[in-house]
Amino acid sequence: MTAVRIFDPAMCCSTGVCGPTVDPQLARFSADLDWLKAQGASVERFNLAQQPAAFAEDQAVRTALETKGEASLPLVKVNGEVMSSGVYPSRSELAAWAGIGGPAAGEIPATRARASAPIMLDTTSGGCCAPAASQAAGEQATKSGKCC
């Protein structure tokens, strides 16, 4: 089984796909990782803000951070080898590195189609990424500690 490990920069949640403004690149990458898992790959994702020990324990990641700083993130390793640093790779790159055939030309996988749809956030109940009812208007949800 192919083992893919992603070391993300510091984000408010494990995927970065939360909050009022979602980066489309992060939504695409998250969908690509879901697709990769469905193809049988083992995928682990680490967030610098939430799992700093994983960064400290991995020699290649430590070296990248010491030489390039956070510009080296995201860092993607496949079967222990660094495959990319500083950018989120495409689905076709992930598939090639994992030895998995990518989607057929013109095919839009279901996970990709969902990722391009608008993401609706519950801003009334105080749920994930929603401000608490007692929060002052205009204050960021991340300051409440409720972001994912």
Summarize the helices and strands and which ones pair or pack.
Elements: E1 3-8, H1 24-38, E2 42-47, H2 52-57, H3 59-68, E3 75-78, E4 81-85, H4 91-98, H5 110-116
Parallel strand pairs: 1-2
Antiparallel strand pairs: 1-3, 3-4
Helix pairs in contact: 1-4, 1-5
Features:
alpha+beta, 14% strand, 148 residues, 31% helix, disordered C terminus, single chain, four-stranded mixed beta sheet, Glutaredoxin
- The count of domains is 2
Elements, N to C (H/E):
EHEHHEEHH
Query: Considering DSSP H and I runs of 4 or more, what fraction of the residues is helical?
Result: 25-40%
Distance between termini? 30 Å
- Weakly predicted, low-confidence segments: 104-148
Q: What does it look like?
A:
By secondary structure, the protein is α+β, with helices and mostly antiparallel strands. Helix content is 31%, strand content 14%. The chain is built from five helices and four strands. The chain has helices at 24-38, 52-57, 59-68, 91-98, 110-116, and strands spanning 3-8, 42-47, 75-78, 81-85. α1 (24-38) packs parallel to α4 (91-98) and α1 (24-38) runs antiparallel to α5. The radius of gyration is 17 Å and the shape is globular. The two termini are 30 Å apart.
